[in-house]
Amino acid sequence: MNTIDPIPIVVFGKDLRIATTVSEKLLPDFVTLKINTDLAAALAEFPPLFNPTSPSAKVPQAVFFGGGFTDKEYQAIVGAVNKAIASSPASSDSSGASAEKPASAPKSEKKVHFIRVQKRDVLAAGSFGPNTETICKVFRKKMEAALAKE
Which of 2, 67, 108, 141 has its CA 20 to 30 A from that of 26? Predict the structure, then answer.
């Protein structure tokens, strides 16, 4: 990707070790602002990042979902982030963001993307088990496709 400034993201996955390793391997193109492995913590900590009180705060441009989460957990986090985006005074799209239709992030012209990398994605890429190199490769590919749609 080779961006000048790393793209800020947040990460939700079930294994902290894997999430941390993936976050490190996504540098220098992506910087992880927050990692959560627990739904309750993610629901409490992710939304404020998308509706910051400081104009200089980095606003995540993506929520990266690693493996091991359920569709219900995914929908809960997407809903909470959408609500934060919709309540932002700087948001011009009150419908928020979704996996299909990203919305403007607060205090930014950037879009928020919800990117899933699940076991089937890793298997389709030719790896078995939670291979962090493959997870990063799949995430980069999906994020590049999402950014190309902007």
Answer: 108
142 by Cβ neighbours in 10 Å (0-12 / 13-18 / 19+) ranks as middle
Six-digit token pair at 32? 């992880």
pLDDT digits (tens, 9 = 90+) for 80-115: 999 999 987 765 443 445 454 444 434 444 689 999
What angle in degrees, to the nearest 10, is found between the helix axes of 16-25 and 132-148? 60
Structural domains of the chain in order of their starting residue, each with its CATH number = 7-148 (3.40.50)
The answer for residues whose C-beta is within 8 angstroms of residue 101's C-beta and 6 or more apart is 95
Q: Report yes or no: 61 and 8 within 8 Å, Cβ to Cβ.
A: yes
